[in-house]
Amino acid sequence: MIKIKRLRRDDSLGPLESVLFLDFIKGLTITMKNLLRKPVTTQYPKEKITPPKRFRGKHGHFVYDGQEPPSLKAIEGFMSFEKGKSRCVACYMCQTACPMPTLF
Amino acid sequence: MNDIIFTAIVTAIKILVVLAVTLGLGAYLTWYERKFAGHLQARRGPTVVGPFGLLQPLADGLKLMTKAPIIPRGVDIKLYYMAIMMALVPAIMLFAVVPFGPSFKILGHEVKPIVANLNIAILYLFAMGSMAAYGTLFAGWASNSKYAFIGSLRKAALIVSYEVVLGFAALSVILLAGSMNVFDIVNAQIKSGVWYIVYQPVSFILFLFCLLAESGRVPFDIQEAEAELVTGYNVEYGGMKFGIFPLAEWYLNVLALCAIMAVLYFGGWAGPHIFGPFSGFIWFLAKTFGLLFFVLWVHWTLPRYQAKDVVEFAWKYLLPISIINLIGTAFFIYFKG
Predict the structure, then answer these.
(1) Buried (b) or exposed (e) across A3-19, using 16+ Cβ within 10 A?
(2) Which of helix, strand or coil describes residue A14?
(3) Considering only CA atoms, which of B149, B151, B143, B146 is closest in space to residue B70?
(4) Residues with Cβ < 8 Å from B308, sequence gap 6 or more?
(5) Using the beta-carbon criterion (under 8 Å), do A40 and B302 form an inter-chain contact?
(6) Would you call A34 an interface residue with chain B, using a CB distance cutoff of 8 Å?
(7) Contact at 8 Å (CB) between B191 and B272?
(8) Is the peptide bond before B219 cis (omega within 30 degrees of 0)?
(9) pLDDT 10s per residue in chain B (337 long)?
(10) CA-CA distance, B292 to B93, in Å (whole number)?
(11) What is the three-class DSSP state of B230?
(12) Which residue of A has its CA nearest to B219?
């Protein structure tokens, strides 16, 4: 099972927090960290990110020999699954995309 | 006679310099804000027009000026145009009482780098600060639009509440300095060797909040709450008529109030003489822009308060705190000094 981190938010701030503006300071530190970071922008018409030739998006499917693919990390945050079991939902997209009629 | 002519010429030069510098700076602050906001959010900001996007303000101005002048149906034409002036003029007039540096001598005359060396400078500041509300109110009323009207009413409520707090916050500094003249306030700080932020941290924070509220900055920008009111009181304006409002409110007002804040709490041009004859001016600008940096930083970080919360915050918390701070300061001065 994935551990989901649950944040508790009170309706009102504590006395220390509201007097010293700790909530403001927390937000300000985050933006300050962003200011010192490199911009993440891809300037589209000038620079383009080239994906691998046959890239069709990441998948987290169970692999034949029981090893989990590294791309599993991409979907960990979005869905729940059991390790080592197939996560095929029988959408038949693989069959549609297969160049040779070897699947199914 | 010679003296009068000299004074007139010097004053004219001062006015021209202040106008040119503040309007130019106001335009370039748009570039600075966009660049800064971009980097705060790990973006790049303007990069296309000129090196580092430095020509962006000119391009923006050109774009705004070439827009077709549209006047919506049902507007009160006189007030519609008057609102622009009423917004811009008080914002520029605030700079009349900003001292840009220590006094120096030209041809045997003492020249103070301030347009009007009033002995009620801080009072003048409050007056002009409140005048800015008229521009907003007129714009909202004349536009014949409910968004603009609600936005302007919110701004009026904001100014009425925060002007009181601003007065009480600045009054404690005036008590310490014993004068409303900006030169006397700075000289008192230089004489005592301590900036007033050390004596008055509470008053400083209150003043900062009032600055944010008066100039329509986050977290108090309820009058132009984009999600509710499109853009508030200037919805019905187009082209450069629209451009004037943010210029006056977001840039000139903030710049002037930051400069006054540097005078009140950070000792104006006080600082070590490490830049030669211009060190006073450089220190003053450095302090002003440091405060401006903080204001922009807050603006691009925090979300917005609800309209009811903002006014409640002023009357319920800020005003009592400011009055207690003022009374405490008065007692301190009565018994110690």
Answers:
(1) eeeeeeeeeeeeeeeee
(2) coil
(3) B143
(4) none
(5) no
(6) yes
(7) no
(8) yes
(9) 677 888 888 888 888 888 888 888 888 888 888 888 888 888 888 888 878 888 888 888 888 888 888 888 888 888 888 888 888 888 888 888 888 877 777 776 777 777 778 888 888 888 888 887 888 888 888 888 888 888 888 888 888 888 888 888 888 888 888 888 888 888 888 888 888 888 888 888 888 888 888 888 878 888 777 777 777 788 888 888 888 888 888 888 888 888 888 888 887 787 777 777 778 788 888 888 888 898 888 888 888 888 788 888 888 888 898 899 889 888 888 887 6
(10) 19
(11) coil
(12) A24
Contacts of B43 in chain A (CB under 8 A): 39-41
> CB B292: neighbour CB atoms within 10 A?
22
B42 touches chain A (CB under 8 A): yes
Token readout for B190 is 């230089």
Residues of A in Cβ contact (< 8 Å) with B47: 43
SS3 A11: coil
Q: Indicate the residue type of A4.
A: I
In 10 A of CB B222, how many CB atoms? 26
- Buried-state track B112-149, b at ≥16 Cβ within 10 A, e below 16: bbbbeebeebbebbeebbebbbbbbbbbbbbbebebbb
B285 φ/ψ sector (left φ>0, alpha ψ -120 to 50, else beta): alpha
Q: Which amino acid is at B252?
A: L
DSSP H stretches of helix in chain B: 2-40, 56-65, 77-93, 121-142, 146-177, 182-192, 196-199, 201-214, 226-229, 240-246, 253-265, 279-299, 307-312, 319-336
Q: How big is chain B by its Cα radius of gyration, in Å?
A: 21
Distance from the first to the final alpha carbon of chain A? 31
Assign residue B45 a region (left: φ > 0; alpha: ψ between -120 and 50; beta: otherwise).
Answer: left
